[in-house]
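[agent] plan:
  1. take the single chain provided in the ticket
  2. run structure prediction with default settings
  3. attach structure tokens to the ticket
  4. add a short note for the reviewer (M.T.)
[agent] executing step 1
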Amino acid sequence: MRNLGPRTTSVLLLFALLLVMAKPASGASTSQVRSDADWILAAQLPDGAIANYVDRAAIWPYFANYAAVGLARAAEITHDSRYSDAAWRWLRWYQAHEEASGFVTDYTVTEGSEVSTGTMDSTDAYAGTFLFAVRATWEATRNRSQLQALRPGIVGAVKAIKATQRHDGLTWAKPTWQMSYLMDESEAYAGLVAAASLAGTLEDSRLKKSATSAAARLRAGTGRLWNQRLGAYDWALDADGVRDPTNWSVLYPDALSQTWAVAFGLATGARARELMRRFAAAQPNWDLPTATAEFDSGPAPVGYWAVPAWAFARIGDPALAGTALAQISTSALAVGRAWPFTAADAGELLAATGVGAADLLSRLG
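[agent] step 2 finished; step 3 output follows
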């Protein structure tokens, strides 16, 4: 789940969206792709870790996973292996820092020394985004030796998701935070589907069965979050069964959570189209980073959100998606990619480059 603090037959079509676009989106030149990718490289440390910002002061693996997805896409567009090499280096860092449980913590960086904070924003979303970052990088390079070397990390990430999977299929955000969030469920689901695909490539039938089963249970469990009266998913559910219904006037997490469900394949067909119609009507300024929106904590600048554009592309509106991505990118460049723009934001923009292609998000999971 995107943390705004100091620093969240149809599903397989979702991962035939993210990486196959052969051309940059309208308005996104190859030079712009290089600019975004090089900016991410500036945030990478010598050991492969990708910091959340170019000051290299903190490593948030969730953000770095999205950055790696973007680097993989940049490699496809530019045919510059520096970008895919950087993505593989990050993925190896993540694997090397998995605990026995498969969990990975955040790190602070002081004078080049990386120190674990001992905690993380979530365990399910970190693992899910890692898995689809591996899938994205594999699809961009088809480097079997690199993929084979990451097999332990893939197994660990699936283990991490399953570690908090409830009897109904939903996952807790982490063992010490027993909340199920729609954003996390979406990312964990896409990750499990990606893991199943990767397991097929690795000819690991046991891993494939484990990931496929967990994904099916998670997808079914997410149905429990659907609120028929409101025509939207409740964005959270706690251990006592208390639900947080979506208020469309609240951008984060309420309205944005609905777009995650669409972008990552949990909501499809007519339901997905209706959710995105309501999102566009309720949040017309979602792609204007400096506009003011309502958050659960109160009014604040909209900030940078590219995933809703993925969702619009997913329902067959690439023109709207492309316009929004161009607006977000222009706004970031106008302020020199100043914080709160992050490596994750750059990665999400790069991942959607080529948004006009029909298969934009089909390789997300």
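[agent] step 4 note for reviewer: The first strand starts at residue 58 and ends at 59.
[agent] ticket updated
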